[in-house]
Amino acid sequence: AVVSTQSAITAGSSGRSSPSPQSRTRKPSPKRRTSVPDRRSFNNSSRSHNSSANTPSKFLGSDRAGLESYLAARREKREEREQEQREHEREDRKRREKKQKRDKMKPEKTEKKQDDPTAPNYEKSGLLNEAQMTYKGIKIKYAEPHEARIPKTKWRLYPFKGEDALPTMYIHRNSGYLIGRERKIVDIPADHPSCSSQHAVIQFRLVDHVRQDGSETKKVKPYLLDLESTNGTFLNNEKIDPKRYYELKEKDIIKFGFSTREYVLLHEHSEGVAEIEN
What we know:
33% of the residues lie in helices and 22% in strands. The chain is an alpha+beta fold. Strands 3, 4, 5, 10, 11, 13 and 14 form a 7-stranded antiparallel beta sheet that branches. A 5-stranded mixed beta sheet has the order 7-6-8-9-12, with no helix packed on it. A hairpin with a 4-residue loop joins strand 13 (253-256) and strand 14 (261-267).
């Protein structure tokens, strides 16, 4: 049985032909042509994908009301930005206009001085102002302010030397009264040796005033000013600072230097004026 089996195997193997060397090498198969996507279609698809990614529908879905609210919010933000830009432009325009006005108000720069000493000099010398402040050859230390006014109230000074009353001085006819020893220029002479030639000034000024009901208005009020006198000016027995206005009120007492004369300030409606004048 073993012999028969081997014979059968040898017979079968002898019946098949052995492959040739040429048949053993495989022929290369033709290359398959793969389809490459068009670059334009790829770019279009990517662009459409990116644009769809930024659309409100990505965040809001298919809700139409939400989409409208989103667009309205964007519209409001754009309007706010435009409004802010307009406000900035308006502020810049105002600043430019103010700057132009300031530039116009600035005095023009004077030209440089010429080297020629004989050339005319047109700069301000101050001689005109000095001439206006000079009266009868005497230079006046004080100039009235722009708010100087003649009062409507009839103010009066009642001088006393001890218990003796001196003639009344009416000080409502002018806006200011100069007090001192220099009789050529002063309005109220103060002959005491301790008084300066130009000692003090009583000045009427138009200033702000608050009524009893709280409303604001303008009113002419008397003020006292010391002109840097040697021995000072006293208001109600207190020495005042020089070159500073002090408001005077009814029944105030004024003294100059070491003089014993006292000047009481009253007006026509003050209590006791009739008795003093009689």
